[in-house]
Specification:
alpha/beta; Rossmann fold; Helicase, Ruva Protein, domain 3; 4 domains; 5-stranded parallel beta sheet; globular
């Protein structure tokens, strides 16, 4: 039985122990556990939400302590309603604890697998919402249109949808509609017969046939030529098509998922995209959030990419300093998750034989893309403060942005625990709450 222990003090050969809840949640992105055992942590309910967001079938047992039976009963009731597998008191005997752990682990064995969740790295509110949607529509045949900025992980979401479906054992076929010349794209999608055009020396099956009984992912669908939009609409409506140069009609048992970073309604108004095709594709809309709107997932993403790249390069896995994570959190990441992965790959190369990645290993392109608190300038008490440009600046706005950045960093570091965040910033909790409320509304 493989146990993830968080502040419980349980130490066995099959136990991975963490005192830091944030690191424990991150561990679930790369490993599977039969059970999580949670002891004394600052926010049991928040931790439970994060654990179940990463792995909704993970049995989580709590060991709690309190001054009164009524408090213990109230705490246990709240945790069980949120999905805890069980709540025990700290004075539970080793025999009773082992029995409860084995019972909880058996529930894990009986739970249906959700391997697709590992495709989505992140446990914050934005990614939890995406996971909930995939969990609902994954098993359906409905067409899904994934939108979002370039580099946000639209293909990863498409793969998760495929893995969450009843077609998971069948092919997942992807094609970028913008990467293939117009004159070849039709044949690439539908296939062709020998002699149908110059260079067609033999019959060839297209992507629809390759994806038969599986999923076809059409990336950059907004760049599909209008005449092919008409043919695609027919396939989606009639579930049939013909190869180029053939009159034989073929059935298409394919689930279609499309993605774009373009504004399709605007293209419809410009006459560049068919309105009827848009509605046929947009049966279930799924919008991928930019990285700057899910900063709480950045440490998890960085460690995920470090592990992935070190494994590909057959290197011992490198660690990442807290200073480095804070440094990366100050950047706006216009290229989103893809840019972050490329930055991590370069940092690993630049770090050489060193086992820890430092801020100096990351060459972040433009100071203008740094958040106010991270823009280089003069230093006050060791903290970088933006230099005043010649054209001047908006003092109130910049100071407000600086304060909000510090508050957000403190909350990320403490896993959302406001009391600890206030302690780090040497503020009263009431003061911090008031600042958060006023700055967020600004």
């Amino acid at each position: 039985m493989k146990v993830l222990s968080i502040g419980s003090g349980l130490l066995t050969p099959a136990t991975l122990h963490h005192d830091d809840p944030c690191l424990a949640v991150e561990q679930l992105a790369s490993q599977e556990f039969d059970l999580a055992l949670v002891g004394r942590v600052d926010s049991s309910e928040d931790l439970l939400r994060h654990l179940l967001a990463q792995d909704r079938h993970l049995p989580v047992l709590f060991l709690v302590a309190g001054d009164s039976p009524s408090w213990l009963l109230d705490q246990a009731s709240r945790l069980l309603k949120l999905g805890a597998a069980g709540v025990l008191t700290e004075d539970t005997s080793p025999t009773e604890l082992e029995r409860a752990m084995r019972q909880a682990a058996r529930k894990r064995v009986l739970a249906p697998p959700e391997g697709w969740r590992k495709t989505l790295v992140g446990t914050g509110p934005a990614m939890s919402k995406i996971a909930d949607l995939i969990r609902l529509v994954g098993p359906r045949r409905a067409t899904v249109l994934i939108t979002g900025e370039s580099g946000t992980g639209k293909e990863m979401a498409a793969r998760a949808l495929h893995l969450a479906s009843t077609r998971a054992s069948m092919p997942f076929v992807a094609i970028n509609c913008n990467a293939i010349p117009r004159e070849l794209l039709e044949a690439e999608l539908f296939g062709h017969v020998k002699g149908s055009f110059t260079g067609a020396t033999q019959d060839r099956i297209g992507r629809f046939e390759q994806a038969q009984s599986g999923t076809l992912f059409l990336d950059e669908i907004g760049d599909l030529p209008l005449d092919l939009q008409t043919k695609l609409l027919r396939v989606l409506q009639e579930r049939e098509f013909e190869r180029v140069g053939s009159s034989r009609t073929m059935k298409a048992d394919v689930r279609v998922i499309a993605a774009t970073n373009a504004d399709l309604p605007a293209r419809i108004r410009e006459g560049r995209f068919r309105e009827d095709l848009y509605y046929r594709l947009n049966v279930v809309p799924l919008e991928m959030p930019p990285l700057r709107e899910r900063c709480e997932d950045l440490p998890l993403l960085v460690r995920h990419f470090v592990a992935k790249i070190c494994q590909m390069e057959t290197l011992p896995e490198k660690s990442v300093s807290r200073e480095t994570l804070d440094h990366l959190a100050g950047y706006s990441w216009p290229g989103n998750v893809r840019q972050l992965e490329n930055a991590v790959e370069m940092a690993i190369a630049m770090s050489g034989e060193r086992t820890m990645l430092l801020p100096s290993d990351f060459a972040l392109p433009l100071p203008s893309q740094l958040r106010p608190a991270a823009v280089p300038g003069v230093r006050v008490q060791g903290v970088a403060v933006p230099a005043i440009p010649e054209e001047g600046l908006d003092f109130e706005r910049l100071v407000g942005s600086f304060e909000l950045s510090l508050l957000e960093q403190a909350l990320r570091r403490t896993g959302g625990n406001k009391k600890q965040a206030a302690d780090i910033l040497r503020l009263k909790r009431t003061t911090m709450n008031a600042k958060l409320k006023s700055l967020s509304a600004a």
